[in-house]
């Protein structure tokens, strides 16, 4: 149930629910690993998720929206064992592959959510509770008539900001110039956020060395597009 601290959810979603057959390994991951590692957003009980109970420890919680096939996410979670790392994704094979990658790396601090991140943040995450939110290379919806489907809109940024603890970060990356500019404009207008790198040229964050190069970045480089990172902090 919504209250004054929970912005209304968008009627236009930012993703397409893709199909796709799972490999034998991905299906095994769903059968064997999902019961302990994953939950479905639409099946969560009312109210906030008890992340301490789910992870079996108290630690700062970071949510990554759109983990794709999990190559980057598994490495990021493995590199930050001090975090309770939550990956949110709608693509079934992607979650299966992420579980396989995490298993191979011996990752213990990762949990998975299957479903809409906006619903998760709105209905199942306490205000002021997250150490960070990451959104790396979201669907750019490059055609102008589809820009309304981009996830980074004022309502969404307000929602993210409300869920961050003071000092918590919202880290975005995209290889589409006009989407990066939209992210910068929308986040700069959010009163609960400040740009950590406002003093840098254009306000862009230097590309963090710890963020693995994704297939999207490699493709962008081939196609002559420059990737931008943006890091905003909850005031």
Q: What's a quick, concise take on this entry?
A:
Helices cover 34% and strands 20% of the residues. It is an alpha/beta fold and 235 residues long.
Counting structural domains, the number is 1
Class, according to the CATH hierarchy?
Answer: Alpha Beta
Number of H- or I-type helical stretches: 9
Label the overall shape. globular
Radius of gyration: 17 Å
Mean pLDDT: 93
Oligomer: single chain
- Total strands: the figure is 8
**Span between termini:** 26 Å
Instruction: Give the amount of beta strand, in percent.
Output: 15-25%
Percent in helix: 25-40%
Element order, helices and strands?
HHEHEHEHEHEHEHEHE
Structure report:
The protein is α/β, with parallel strands linked by helices. The protein has one domain: Rossmann fold (3-Layer(aba) Sandwich), CATH 3.40.50.150. It has nine helices and eight strands. The protein has an eight-stranded mixed beta sheet with strand order 1-4-3-2-5-6-8-7, with helices on both faces. α1 (24-32) packs across α5 and α4 runs parallel beside α5.
Give the arrangement of secondary structure elements.
Layout: H1 24-32, H2 34-37, E1 38-40, H3 51-55, E2 61-65, H4 71-79, E3 84-89, H5 92-105, E4 110-114, H6 117-124, E5 130-136, H7 154-163, E6 164-174, H8 177-188, E7 193-195, H9 215-222, E8 228-234
Parallel strand pairs: 1-4, 2-3, 2-5, 3-4, 5-6
Antiparallel strand pairs: 6-8, 7-8
């Amino acid at each position: 149930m919504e209250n004054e601290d929970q912005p209304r959810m968008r009627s236009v979603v930012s993703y397409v629910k893709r199909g796709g057959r799972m490999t034998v390994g991905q299906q095994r991951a769903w059968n064997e690993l999902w019961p302990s590692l994953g939950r479905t957003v639409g099946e969560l009980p009312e109210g906030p998720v008890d992340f301490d109970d789910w992870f079996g420890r108290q630690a700062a919680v970071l949510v990554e929206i759109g983990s794709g096939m999990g190559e980057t996410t598994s490495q990021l979670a493995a590199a930050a064992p001090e975090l309770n790392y939550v990956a949110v994704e709608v693509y079934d094979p992607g979650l299966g592959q992420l579980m396989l990658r995490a298993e191979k790396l011996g990752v213990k601090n990762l949990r998975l959510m299957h479903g809409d991140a906006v619903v998760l943040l709105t209905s199942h995450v306490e205000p002021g509770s997250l150490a960070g939110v990451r959104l790396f290379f979201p669907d750019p919806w490059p055609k102008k008539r589809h820009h309304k489907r981009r996830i980074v809109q004022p309502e969404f940024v307000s929602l993210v900001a409300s869920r961050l603890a003071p000092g918590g970060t919202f880290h975005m990356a995209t290889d589409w110039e006009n989407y990066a500019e939209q992210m910068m404009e929308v986040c700069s207008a959010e009163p609960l956020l400040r740009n950590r790198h406002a003093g840098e040229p254009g306000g862009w964050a230097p590309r963090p060395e710890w963020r693995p190069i994704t297939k999207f970045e490699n493709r962008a480089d081939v196609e002559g597009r420059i990737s931008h990172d943006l890091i905003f902090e909850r005031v």
